[in-house]
Amino acid sequence: MRNIKKSKGFTLIELVVVIVILGILSAVALPKFVNFTSEAIIASSESLRGSIDTAAQLTYLKAIINNKHEEAASTIEINGETIDIVYGYPAGTANGIVKLMAIDFDDFANGDTSGEWHSRASTFSGAWVYWHGSFDENAGSLRCYVRYRQSTAENTKPIIDFENREC
């Protein structure tokens, strides 16, 4: 008589159950390990930083054309708006960089938390701070913001820094 061995393996139903369990675990556990919100806020903030830098450079070029790039305080007309400038670059005020960027300011102080960006005057004189609208608290406590500090002297660019330690 021949000795016949039984084949040992998984049935189709057992394989389907294992796949379903793995699918449920990955759907529940994966979002806890992968947080794309932080990366999106950082990328968006970097984009804002680049936009502010570009706007400041274009303003400076227009100030050179109008021969206002050496003045400590002046104004320049851009797209029908009067923009305050300091040594040719936008001032770090509501009538300077904020008007130029056309991003609402003082929304946070007025309780409006619906915008993509919040902003306010910085604790530094001649500076303005922007932080992402997904944060309800003030930029000073966040350590996740873009700050524009106006030029302080002739032939000196404004400082545009991005703090991202707690994004």
Provide a descriptive summary of the structure in words.
By secondary structure, this protein is α+β, with helices and mostly antiparallel strands. The protein has one domain. The chain is built from 4 helices and 7 strands. It has helices at residues 12-33, 36-65, 94-101, 139-142, and strands spanning 74-78, 81-86, 89-90, 117-121, 127-132, 144-149, 159-164. The strands form 2 sheets. The protein has a 4-stranded antiparallel β-sheet, covered by helices on one side. Strands 1-2-3 form a 3-stranded antiparallel β-sheet. A hairpin with a 5-residue loop joins strand 4 (117-121) and strand 5. It is rod-shaped and about 100 Å long. The mean pLDDT is 84.
Topology:
Blueprint lengths: L11 H22 L2 H30 L8 E5 L2 E6 L2 E2 L3 H8 L15 E5 L5 E6 L6 H4 L1 E6 L9 E6 L3
Antiparallel strand pairs: 1-2, 2-3, 4-5, 5-6, 6-7
